[in-house]
């Protein structure tokens, strides 16, 4: 019998080849090919017996399928429940991704403690920390509950054995890249190992109707757990993000089979753990008593929530042939387009100026509704004229200088009015020149 041949698998996307190459042909990443021996039994000619379907697994008409409503189990963490669509669903598998050190373990330990306090049995499996380290964090955050069980395991068979022994109502696995199966060749974290671990945990979750939360770290390009196959296997994908220099954290829903997507939850990291921020609009403002040029307030919509955010701009005369364009919290290509529209349609000379645009509080503005606030902030900095404290601007700017209507404009106006912004500049103004004249009293 011939010995199994070796293959090389990309640690980023899972693409395989029979010989080593320096660059993956699928994801174009360098130095990601790792050797892995071929699976045993590959190429076997053994006949597989046909599978006989039992009555419970047989196909049935769609009209005969039960329509029981899904029972949602709240986690008692309001912002996390908002992102999940109300809470945990029995048998659902949730993938929480994020950069190392952003606060994923702290949040999930809080969720596990709340579930244990409500009378449920919770198993928290850590592959990165010892049980002593997890207990120290639990003492600091007040998460010591008798029905919260801890285990530090990196072997898949042992993890499944812990599930059989404890029989938990909720499982938290931190993280999926640290657990490996002895039946699969390769180190923990490789695409084959991650898929095998996830497939077994998902199978147990469905069989026991047990919700499972998987933690997945992101790579340098932002993909979850190396291979993106995990996103298709699980029911819910959430991303935990935030700047380490600030205490503000966001949980965004990227995929949800049981609730809305693009929802966001706001948290604040403190010395005692993580704290919910139900009304985060005030965190994104930096308002002094007197107006300052180069600032403008906008209203952004995250899921169903309208949030107030402040855009700041600074312009200085450039000392180099190529003026600098520095952005933080906004898309740099979008700012470059707005600068071109301001110069061509509004007559502002910005081609010889260094332009710096940033948001307050670490919030990221990705929707086109922030175009008008960015343009107003830049124009205010160029003219050195402050914008009124009670004015908010939102609207998409076209290349022709027109202000287009954006979605949820009534919700944006109501949120601005609730926080004292009685004047709004939006698509009703018409074009960019008129909007700048109204905002800056030109």
Q: How would you describe what is shown here?
A:
The protein has 442 residues and is an alpha/beta fold. It folds into 3 domains: 6-36; 71-278, 3-Layer(aba) Sandwich (Rossmann fold); 282-440, Ribosomal Protein S5, domain 2, CATH 3.30.230. The chain has helices at residues 78-84, 104-117, 131-141, 156-166, 191-208, 229-233, 332-345, 371-383, 409-418, 432-440, and strands spanning 6-10, 16-17, 33-37, 93-98, 122-126, 148-151, 170-174, 212-217, 236-241, 248-256, 264-270, 273-276, 295-302, 305-317, 325-328, 353-359, 391-393, 396-397, 403-404, 423-425. The protein has a 9-stranded mixed sheet, sandwiched between helices. The protein has a 4-stranded mixed sheet with strand order 13-14-16-15. β10 (248-256) and β11 (264-270) form a beta hairpin. The longest helix has 18 residues, at 191-208. It is globular, with a radius of gyration of 26 Å. The termini are far apart.
């Amino acid at each position: 019998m011939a010995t199994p041949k070796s293959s090389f698998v990309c640690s980023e996307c899972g693409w395989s080849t029979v010989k080593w190459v320096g660059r993956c042909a699928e994801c174009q990443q360098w130095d990601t090919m790792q050797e892995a021996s071929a699976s045993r039994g590959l190429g076997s000619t053994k006949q597989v017996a046909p599978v006989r379907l039992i009555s419970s697994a047989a196909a049935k008409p769609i009209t005969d399928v039960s329509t029981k409503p899904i029972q949602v189990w709240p986690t008692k963490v309001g912002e996390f429940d908002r992102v999940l669509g109300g809470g945990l669903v029995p048998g659902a598998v949730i993938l929480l991704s994020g950069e190392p050190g952003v606060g994923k373990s702290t949040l999930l330990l809080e969720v596990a403690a709340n579930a244990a306090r409500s009378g449920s049995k919770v198993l928290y499996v850590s592959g990165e920390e010892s049980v002593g380290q997890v207990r120290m964090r639990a003492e600091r955050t007040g998460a010591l509950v008798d029905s919260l069980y801890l285990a530090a395991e990196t072997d898949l068979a042992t993890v499944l054995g812990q599930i059989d022994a404890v029989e938990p109502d909720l499982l938290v696995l931190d993280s999926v890249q640290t657990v490996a199966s002895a039946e699969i060749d390769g180190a923990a974290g490789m695409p084959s190992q991650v898929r095998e671990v996830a497939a077994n945990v998902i199978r147990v979750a469905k069989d026991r109707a047990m919700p499972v939360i998987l933690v997945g770290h992101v790579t340098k390009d932002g993909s979850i757990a190396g291979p993106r196959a995990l996103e298709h296997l699980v029911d819910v994908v959430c991303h935990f993000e935030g700047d380490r220099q600030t205490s503000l954290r966001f949980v965004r829903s990227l995929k949800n089979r049981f609730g809305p997507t693009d929802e966001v939850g706001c948290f604040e990291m403190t010395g005692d753990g993580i704290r919910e921020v139900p009304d985060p609009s005030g965190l994104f403002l930096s308002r002094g008593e007197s107006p300052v040029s180069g600032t403008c307030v906008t209203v952004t919509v995250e899921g169903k929530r309208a949030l107030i955010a402040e855009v700041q701009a600074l312009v200085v005369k450039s000392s180099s042939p190529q003026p600098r364009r520095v952005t933080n919290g906004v898309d740099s290509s979008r700012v470059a387009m707005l600068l071109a529209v301001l110069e061509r349609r509004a007559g502002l000379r910005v081609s010889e100026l260094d332009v710096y645009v940033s948001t307050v509080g670490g919030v990221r503005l990705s929707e086109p509704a922030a175009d008008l606030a960015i343009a107003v902030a830049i124009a205010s900095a160029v003219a050195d004229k402050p914008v009124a404290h009670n004015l908010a601007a939102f609207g998409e700017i076209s290349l022709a200088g027109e202000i287009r209507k954006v979605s949820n404009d009534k919700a944006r106006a109501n949120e601005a009015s609730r926080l004292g912004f009685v004047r709004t500049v939006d698509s009703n103004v018409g074009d960019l020149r008129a909007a700048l004249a109204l905002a800056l009293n030109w």
